[in-house]
C-alpha cells in the first residue's frame, strides 16, 4: 500500500508498504533514515523513539499505515541543519553519554521532548522520562549528566 | 493482509461488520508486538486503524455526571485530563510501561487485550465502570466491567463489536491502586490491587489483577468492609479489620505459579496490598472530614 506522511518537515510518499509493517521499518528501510534503531521491536528499549505529531513514541509499535497524513520527526530532524547539532546532541557528546551509540538516538529524542516540556527537570523527572530507554554501556550516569547539561544550555540561550 | 482506515465511527462499525476478522489497532502496543513476533500463520487478515476516529479520542460528562471516556484516549491524557476525577485509573495508568508506551497505549486497548495483568482492570472493577460496546447491527451495548472479562485474554465483545468508550462515575471517595513488580517502570504486574471507597453509599469497590485467569472483584471483602467500617464516626481503622480484609482479598484470588512469581507469593502480596491501600484510603476519608468541619 501507499503511505503519505511528513518526515522531518518533508512530505514523503512511500510505496509497497506491507500492511503489518512498522513505522520503524518504513523509516529505516524505505526512507533511508537509519538513525532510529531497531533493538527489540517490542517497545521495551526505546531505541526507536521518534516524534509522531509531536509526541515521542516507539516507532516499532506504530503501524506504518497509522502514520498516514501525520508528522514524524526522527533524530535526523533535530539538528538545525548546516552540520550543527541540537543542544541535546551536543550535550550527549560532551558529557560522554555515548559509548556504542545504539541507544543514543532514542535517548536524544526522549530527552529533547523532556526539556521542551520541562525546561528545568529534577533528577526524578529525568529518570522517569528515560525509564523506557535502555542503555547497555554507559551505566546511565553520563546520560543524566548530559540531560542536565542540555537543560542548562537551553535555559541560558532562550 | 489489508489495512482499513475508517475516518468516522460509523465507518469503523461498518468496516468491523463487513470484516469481523479485522483486528482493531489503536496505540498498537499490544497489536504490533504480536505482528512483529507472531508467525505468518497467525497474522490477522486485516488491521482496522482506529486512530483517525475522532469520537474515540475525546471524553465528556453525561447528564447524570458519569464520565464517558473514549476508547482511544491514551494513558498520558487520562492522567493529565482525568486524574482529578478518576484517581484510581490515573494511578494505574501511571504504572503502565514507559512514557513512550503511555503516549500511545489506551484503556480501550487494555480492555481489548483483556490480559489478566492489564493495569486498567482493577480500578475499572473497583469503580464499577461500564464498557460501552457498539455494533452496526445492534447498536450500543453496556457491559459492566465485572462481566467483560471472560477468560485469559478473552472478553465479552462480539466479532462485529468495537469498544466506543468506558463509562465511569467520578470518584466519590478515596481511590488507590498498587502493583507488585521488579522495578518502577516497564513492569507487567506480578499482582495488583485497586480499592475505591464510596462513602455516600457506605460501600467499597475492589479489583484484583494478575492473580486469576481474569481480573476480578473480591466481593466478600467488599461486603465485609461495608458493614465493618465506621463510616459516620470515621474512627481509626482497627488493625484487625484491615487484616481480615486482606485475608478476604487473598481468598478471592486464584493465582498460578509462573515466571513472574509463585501463587503463594501472589496471595501473600495481595493481602499486604489490600491492607495497605485500605489504610491509605481510610486515612484520606478521615482527613476529608477534618477539612469539611
Ligand atoms: C513495553 C510495553 C510495556 C507494557 N507495559 C504494560 C503495563 O505496565 N501494564 C499494562 O496493563 N499493559 C502494558 N503493556 C500492554 C499495552 O501497552 C496495554 O495493554 C495497552 O493498554 C494497549 O493499548 P493500545 O491502544 O496500544 O492497544 P492496541 O495494541 O492497539 O490493541 C490492543 C487490543 O485491543 C483491541 N482493541 C483496540 N482498540 C479497540 C476498540 N476500540 N474496540 C475493540 N477492540 C479494540 C485490539 O484489537 C487488540 O486486541 C505494555 C506493552 C509494551 C509494549
Ligand atoms: S526497538 Fe522499539 S522499543 Fe526497542
Ligand atoms: S551507549 Fe551502548 S547501549 Fe547505550
From TrEMBL, chain A:
Keywords: 2Fe-2S, Iron, Iron-sulfur, Metal-binding, Oxidoreductase. CDD domains: fer2 (cd00207). The keyword Iron-sulfur applies. PANTHER family: OXIDOREDUCTASE WITH IRON-SULFUR SUBUNIT (PTHR44379), XANTHINE DEHYDROGENASE IRON-SULFUR-BINDING SUBUNIT XDHC-RELATED (PTHR44379:SF8). This is (2Fe-2S)-binding protein. One of its GO terms (molecular function) is metal ion binding. SUPFAM superfamilies: 2Fe-2S ferredoxin-like, CO dehydrogenase ISP C-domain like. InterPro entries: 2Fe-2S-bd, 2Fe-2S-bd_dom_sf, 2Fe-2S_ferredoxin-like_sf, 2Fe-2S_ferredoxin-type, 2Fe2S_fd_BS, Beta-grasp_dom_sf, Diverse_Oxidoreductases.
TrEMBL record, chain B:
Pfam families: CO_deh_flav_C (PF03450), FAD_binding_5 (PF00941). Keywords: FAD, Flavoprotein, Oxidoreductase. It comes from the Bacteria. InterPro entries: CO_DH_flav_C, CO_DH_flav_C_dom_sf, Diverse_Substr_Oxidored, FAD-bd_PCMH, FAD-bd_PCMH-like_sf, FAD-bd_PCMH_sub1, FAD-bd_PCMH_sub2, Mopterin_DH_FAD-bd. Residues 1-173 form the FAD-binding PCMH-type domain. Residues 93-114 are annotated as: Disordered. Residues 93-103 have a biased composition (Polar residues). GO terms for molecular function: FAD binding; oxidoreductase activity. This is Xanthine dehydrogenase family protein subunit M.
Amino acid at each position: 500500500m501507499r503511505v503519505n506522511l511528513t518526515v522531518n518537515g518533508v512530505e514523503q510518499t512511500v510505496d509497497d508498504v506491507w500492511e503489518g509493517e512498522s513505522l520503524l521499518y518504513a523509516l529505516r528501510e524505505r526512507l533511508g533514515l537509519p538513525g532510529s534503531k531497531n533493538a527489540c521491536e517490542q517497545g521495551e528499549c526505546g531505541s526507536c523513539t521518534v516524534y509522531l505529531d509531536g509526541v515521542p513514541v516507539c516507532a516499532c509499535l506504530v503501524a506504518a499505515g497509522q502514520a498516514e497524513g501525520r508528522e514524524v520527526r526522527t533524530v535526523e530532524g533535530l539538528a538545525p541543519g548546516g552540520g550543527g547539532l541540537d543542544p541535546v546532541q551536543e550535550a550527549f557528546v560532551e558529557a560522554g553519554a555515548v559509548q556504542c551509540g545504539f541507544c543514543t538516538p532514542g535517548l536524544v529524542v526522549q530527552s529533547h521532548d523532556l526539556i521542551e516540556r520541562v525546561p528545568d527537570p529534577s533528577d526524578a523527572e529525568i529518570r522517569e522520562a528515560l525509564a523506557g530507554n535502555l542503555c547497555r554501556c554507559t551505566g546511565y550516569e553520563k546520560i543524566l549528566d548530559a540531560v542536565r547539561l542540555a537543560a542548562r544550555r537551553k535555559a541560558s540561550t532562550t | 493482509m489489508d489495512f482499513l482506515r475508517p475516518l468516522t465511527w460509523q465507518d469503523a462499525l461498518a468496516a468491523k461488520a463487513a470484516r469481523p476478522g479485522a483486528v482493531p489497532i489503536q496505540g498498537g502496543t499490544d497489536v504490533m508486538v504480536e505482528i512483529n513476533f507472531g508467525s505468518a500463520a497467525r497474522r490477522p487478515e486485516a488491521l482496522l486503524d482506529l486512530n483517525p476516529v475522532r469520537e474515540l479520542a475525546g471524553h465528556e460528562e453525561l447528564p447524570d455526571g458519569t464520565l464517558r471516556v473514549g476508547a482511544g484516549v491514551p494513558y498520558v491524557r487520562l492522567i493529565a485530563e482525568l486524574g482529578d476525577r478518576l484517581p484510581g485509573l490515573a494511578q494505574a495508568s501511571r504504572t503502565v510501561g514507559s512514557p513512550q508506551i503511555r503516549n500511545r497505549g489506551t484503556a480501550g486497548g487494555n480492555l481489548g487485550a483483556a490480559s489478566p495483568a492489564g493495569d486498567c482492570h482493577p480500578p475499572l472493577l473497583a469503580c464499577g465502570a461500564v464498557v460501552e460496546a457498539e455494533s452496526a447491527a445492534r447498536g450500543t451495548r453496556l457491559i459492566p466491567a465485572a462481566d467483560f472479562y471472560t477468560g485469559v485474554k478473552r472478553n465479552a465483545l462480539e466479532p462485529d463489536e468495537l469498544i466506543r468508550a468506558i463509562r465511569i462515575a467520578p470518584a466519590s471517595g478515596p481511590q488507590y491502586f498498587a502493583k507488585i513488580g521488579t522495578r518502577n517502570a516497564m513492569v507487567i504486574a506480578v499482582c495488583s490491587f485497586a480499592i475505591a471507597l464510596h462513602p455516600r453509599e457506605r460501600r467499597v469497590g475492589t479489583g484484583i489483577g494478575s492473580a486469576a485467569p481474569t481480573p476480578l472483584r473480591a466481593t466478600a471483602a467488599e461486603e465485609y468492609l461495608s458493614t465493618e467500617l465506621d463510616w459516620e464516626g470515621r474512627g481509626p481503622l482497627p488493625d484487625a479489620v484491615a487484616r481480615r480484609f486482606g485475608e478476604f482479598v487473598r481468598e478471592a484470588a486464584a493465582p498460578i505459579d509462573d515466571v513472574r512469581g509463585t501463587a503463594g507469593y501472589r496471595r501473600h502480596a495481595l493481602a499486604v496490598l489490600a491492607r495497605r491501600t485500605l489504610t491509605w484510603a481510610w486515612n484520606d476519608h478521615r482527613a476529608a472530614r477534618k477539612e469539611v468541619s
